[in-house]
UniProtKB/TrEMBL annotation:
Source organism (scientific name): Marinobacter subterrani
One GO molecular-function entry: phosphoribosylglycinamide formyltransferase activity
Protein name, UniProt field: Phosphoribosylglycinamide formyltransferase
Keywords, sorted A to Z: Purine biosynthesis, Transferase
Domain Formyl transferase N-terminal: 2-180
Pathway(s) it belongs to: Purine metabolism; IMP biosynthesis via de novo pathway; N(2)-formyl-N(1)-(5-phospho-D-ribosyl)glycinamide from N(1)-(5-phospho-D-ribosyl)glycinamide (10-formyl THF route): step 1/1
Length: 203
């Protein structure tokens, strides 16, 4: 399967996927990396790995619809089987999400359904939680709300700060995302009507 990664930031998750995709038995191929941020370090990482890159800068568009249409056009050129959102910090329109239903994954730094949206580490600390973590889910119309495929937990220490916690969660992200992408490429994980199918069984 052909994988297209979208990233807005430093791209450490992209890097984890690039590294995994270099393993001899990896079942998919990263065909392109796109960003809405011209200066994203993720693009640098992609170029280093000789991957094709593209930028669709949201600042150049008057509306979300126009941005999404331009993004869609770039994506379709690569005909991906899977879109991996790896720190892609734009909310996608309903039409866009529907067009890639069951073929788009996102990583979110919380144990969903807890803490959708931003500042998840700070919110977990403020709530006095003892565990936090990361979720990987299918993207549906609901922001950070699609069916969860896998999660990894992190114990919160009494001296954790949002930064230290983010670091611990990121370590888990870099392990978990390549595993889930591999499952998808092997056909082991699929989106049912509103739940995840794993090895042919509802999860
Ligand atoms: C990750 O923490 C991811 O969970 C989030 O954005 C961050 C992206 O980091 N939503 P990176 O660009 O992969 O380094």
């Amino acid at each position: 399967p052909k994988i297209l990664v979208l990233a807005s930031g430093s791209g450490t998750n992209l890097q984890a996927l690039i590294d995994a995709s270099r393993e001899r038995d990896f079942p998919g191929q990263i065909v392109a990396v796109g960003s809405n941020q011209p200066g994203a370090f993720a693009l640098e990482r992609a170029a280093q790995a000789n991957l094709e890159t593209f930028v669709v800068n949201h600042r150049n568009f008057g509306s979300r619809d126009e941005f999404d249409a331009a993004l869609m056009a770039e994506i379709l050129r690569h005909a991906p089987d899977l879109i991996v959102l790896a720190g892609f910090m734009r909310i996608l329109t309903t039409d866009f999400v529907r067009a890639f239903r069951g073929r788009m994954l996102n990583i979110h730094p919380s144990l969903l359904p807890k803490y959708t949206g931003l500042k998840t580490h700070q919110r977990a600390l403020e709530a006095g939680d003892s565990v936090h973590g990361v979720s990987i889910h299918f993207v549906t119309e609901e922001l950070d709300g699609g069916p969860v495929i896998a999660q990894a937990e992190v114990a919160i220490a009494s001296d954790d700060t949002p930064e230290s916690l983010a670091e611990k969660v990121q370590e888990k992200e870099h392990v978990l995302y390549p595993i889930v992408v591999r499952w998808f490429c092997e056909g082991r994980v699929q989106l049912g009507s509103d739940y995840v199918m794993f090895d042919g069984q509802p999860l």
